[in-house]
Amino acid sequence: MNQSQLGILKGVLLCSILFISETGCKKHRGADSTTSSGPTLRIGEVGSMTGSEGTFGISTHQGIELAIQEINAEGGVQGKKLEIILVDNQSKADEAATATVKLISQDNVIAILGEVASSRSMAMAAIAQDFKIPMISPSSTNPKVTEQGNYIFRVCFIDPFQGKVMAKFARNNLKLSKVAILRDLKSDYSTGLSQYFKSAFTESGGKIVTDESYNSGDIDFKSQLTKMRATRPEAIFVPGYYTEVGLVARQARELGLTIPLLGGDGWDSPKLAEIGGQAMENSYFSNHYSNENQSPYIQSFIRKFKQSYGVVPDGLSAMGYDAAKVLASAMTRSKSLNPADIRDALASTQNFAGITGNISMDSNRNAIKSAVVLKVAKNGYFQYQTTISP
Amino acid sequence: MLELVQHLVNGLSLGSIYALIALGYTMVFGVLQLINFAHGDVYMLGAYIGMYTAHAFGFGQSSSLFSLIITLIASMVGCACTGFLIERLAYRPLRRSPRINVLITAVGVSLFLEFSGQLLFGSDPKFFPQLFQPNVDWSIGELKINPLQIFVFFISITLMALLQYIIFHTRLGRAMRAVSFNHDLASLMGIPTDRVISYTFMLGSALAGAAGVLVGLTYPKIDPLMGTMPGLKAFVAAVLGGIGNITGAVVGALTLGLAEEFLVGYWASTYRDALAFAILILILLFKPTGLFGTKRTEKV
After folding, report:
1. What is the mean pLDDT of residues A9-35?
2. Which of A161, A299, A385, B174 has the most CB atoms around its CB within 10 Å?
């Protein structure tokens, strides 16, 4: 390499460094300029619109969209309309991280909504925390998500509680004493929930007879189930996502295991019963809300949602709706519209009446609220069983 | 004892699915020495074509062998056409290029199919209609056997026999073996090598299509990325049996299926996917020609 080439190289390097630091600064200025002069307030959303958990992202987005429409129809926040900028992460954690960087540094969003899956929310949270942009996860239940920093919030309950709910339900309502666990090793959500269920269930006098695992994307679970069958469990706790649970149910029935399956909010999708068919019936899972709740506020939400999208909202749509509403309410209460003030307003959320219950942020920025247990009944209908409070 | 037999049954049924995919892999490799990484994705396409055919004809309401056969044929024909197009558009222009170029193209075709699948079919998992559900109970006490599993097992054995016949007892088979042995020499002998290669691809892809439908039937959840893992495992199975060898592919696949089943059944499920690739590494280290592979004699 001769001298002139070296010079050019140095120049390029210098330029790129300047460029990086320039965009780095722009982030903060960008956020401020939005607050003072921009026509709309930009809010980022990262969701799994495609990929294996596609229905999660779509449901959540519909809920968010409906909430934003309502907020804008009522005049927006502090005189400005809200604008949602949605980025798809293809159900991948690394894409979720990239999407977050893009939303913050290119689109200058002042807050971020997302994700459903805890693994992806964690990838996003690390970045949002670095840039000090408030982020609300509508429905990631793994406790580690909000532990990433003081800018990360959630409007749903957390897994230690969800695990306790199912353990309580299995012990007290179903009167079970021997349960097997089948967890998805690739998902923070599933391994976390299994752990909490296990400790809550053994504490209340039950016994975990076997603890097996699979990887999301697997289609064959017969070896795990055959192994389980020998230990004679009275139920199987499968806190995975709906994509695998349907197949697990089918194969369990094929092997003659007619015991109920138990799970968490990752089951909440119309696809669950479509894939699992009859095999899914008489299984139970914990969820954020039940559409059988007759409260007028909830029924009017269901009606509006049906008008817009033609389907009954699932728990994730309700969570998305609540997340957007909580954010808007915090922005309305906030001193100014810069991210730090919005964060403070979010942290002080108390008794916000949402579709999924009353939302109050605790000191760890988690919502404290009750959970419902639903039963998969005939034709994939989710039947309300009971509400369990913290 | 009962548990052992159940694991054996499960392992064989899992293995026969790998076998169906591995057959196509090994055939294309036998003729072209090309690892067609897009094979797993053709299998995915097969499942989708099957699903759409079934919906179009309104199958799936009741179980009938007839609807299964129609769906199988539709999917095999559809996949054969796809295989033809892939070979014509992506591999033929590179016939004279170094092998690494073709290999990279194969990876590209695979990604292309996966992501156009996501665009076209949507990336959420779809339910595969239950066309054919044999209503017989083959369980012996606690030992549960799904007749479909046996069905898939025999189909893969039958297809293997059929392929053996085509390759060793027909004109097309002789031409394939000739092309495999020496491409240039074969064309000097008047064998239309391009056409033979097209046929090989179509045959291999049709097998993948059949696999797609049969897997859809036994594991009724299909998504655009479903081909990736089984594709890789089938590749390992083909290498294990000696890539290019038809019997080897089936034996390798059944061995892999059983090995996975017993690993999960008696040890830890965590290592399931690692096992396939550990086998791959060991085979490449100690017996690169695979169980049935001889240096160059029995190539397709």
Report:
1. 43
2. A161
**Are A89 and A95 within 8 A, CB to CB?**
yes
CA distance A101 to chain B (A): 23
Distances (CA, A) of A219 to A42, A119, B22: 41, 21, 17
H-assigned helices in chain B: 2-32, 39-57, 65-86, 99-121, 147-169, 171-181, 183-188, 193-218, 228-241, 246-266, 272-286
Angstroms from B271 CA to nearest CA on chain A: 9
Helix (H, G, I), strand (E, B) or coil at B215: helix
Which of B123, B130, B269 is facing A54, going by the closest CB pair? B123
* Structural contact between residues A390 and A173, judged by C-beta atoms closer than 8 angstroms: no
C-alpha to C-alpha distance for A111 and A128, rounded to whole angstroms? 9
**CB–CB contact A54 B215 (8 Å):** no
Contact A256 B139 (CB under 8 A): yes
Query: How far is A223 from A143, CA to CA, in rounded Å?
Result: 31
Output the six-digit token pair for A66.
């409906």
Domain tally for chain B?
A: 1
B108-149 pLDDT, tens digit per residue, is: 999 999 989 988 888 778 899 888 777 676 777 778 788 888
Count chain A–chain B contacts defined by CB atoms under 8 A.
94
- In which domain, by residue range, is B238 found? 2-131+143-286
- Between chains, do B221 and A247 touch, taking CB under 8 Å as contact? yes
Cα A109 from Cα A302, distance rounded (Å)? 29
Q: What pLDDT digit, counting tens, does each position of A235-246 carry?
A: 999 999 888 999
β-partners of residue B140 are B143
CATH code: domain of residue B253: 1.10.3470
Residue that is written with structure tokens 């017996």 in the block: B287
Residue in chain A closest to B263 (alpha carbons) equals: A223
**Interchain CB distance below 8 Å, A222 and B229:** no
**Tokens (6 digits) for B230:** 């089984």
- A41 and A134 belong to one structural domain: yes
pLDDT(B83) > 90: yes
For residue A277, the tally of other CB atoms under 10 A from its CB is: 17
The pTM of the full predicted model, rounded to 2 decimals, is 0.81
> Which residue range(s) make up the domain with A215?
160-287+373-388
